Amino acid sequence: MNGDLENALSYAPVDSPFGTLHAAVTRRGLVRVAFPEEHPDTMLERLARDLSPRIVQAPSMLDPVRRELDEYFSGRRREFGLDLDWALIGPFARRVLKMTAAIPYGAHLSYGEVAAEAGSPRGARAAGNALGSNPIPIVIPCHRVLHAGGRLGGYGGGLDRKRYLLALEGSLTPRM
C-alpha cells in the first residue's frame, strides 16, 4: 500500500444466514464484523473515531473474509485462517478473546474457564463483558462460551444466533 493508504480501513457487506453482515479490515487483518442490526454508518463512525478516518469501500479487500465465512456457514470450514487486527480490543479482553479463538469447532468452555485461562480465575463476569464487546464475532467464536452447567448465557448477536451457530457446529444439546 502507498503511504496514503497505510492506515486506511476497507469495508464491505458480507452475506450470511442472518442477513448482511458488515466487515472491515486494516492492513493487519480483520478488525470488525457487525451484525445486520448495527447500521453500517454507525460501525464506520466508530472505526473512524477509534482507528482511522481513512475508510474505503473495497469489496475485493474482503474477499478472503467473505470466502471463509461462506465456507463456515456452509459447513466446509471448521477454523478461520484470517489475520486479525486486535486494535479495538484492550489487554484483558484480548487475553479472553485469544483464549476464545482457541476453542475448537464444536466445543465450548464456560465463562469461568475462559477467565481462568486468561489469567483471572475469579473473572467470569469480566470475561463475559469482554466477550459481549467482541468486535469480531463468529471469527472469534464467543458463541462457544457458555454458563457453567451448559446454559447458553448471553450473546452480542442474540441467543437465536448463538443457538444457530452452536447447532451448525453440532454442539447444541437439548438443554440449551
Structural commentary:
With 176 residues, the protein is an alpha/beta fold. The protein has 6 helices and 6 strands, in the order E-E-E-H-E-H-H-E-H-H-E-H. The protein has a 4-stranded mixed β-sheet, sandwiched between helices. Helix 3 packs across helix 5 and helix 4 crosses helix 5. The chain is globular, with a radius of gyration of 16 Å. It starts with 8 loop residues before the first strand and ends in an 8-residue tail after the last helix.
Which tags fit this structure?
4-stranded mixed beta sheet, globular, two-stranded parallel sheet, 176 residues
Quick rundown:
This protein has helices at residues 40-50, 63-73, 91-101, 111-117, 124-132, 159-168; strands at 9-16, 19-25, 30-34, 55-57, 109-110, 145-146. With 176 residues, the chain is an alpha/beta fold.
Gyration radius, in Å: 16 Å
Helix content: 25-40%
Determine the number of helices (DSSP H or I, runs of at least 4 residues).
Answer: 6
Largest sheet: 4 strands, mixed
Spatial ordering of strands, largest sheet: 3-2-1-4
How much beta, percentage-wise? 15-25%
Structural class: alpha/beta
- The SSE order reads EEEHEHHEHHEH
Give the overall shape.
Answer: globular
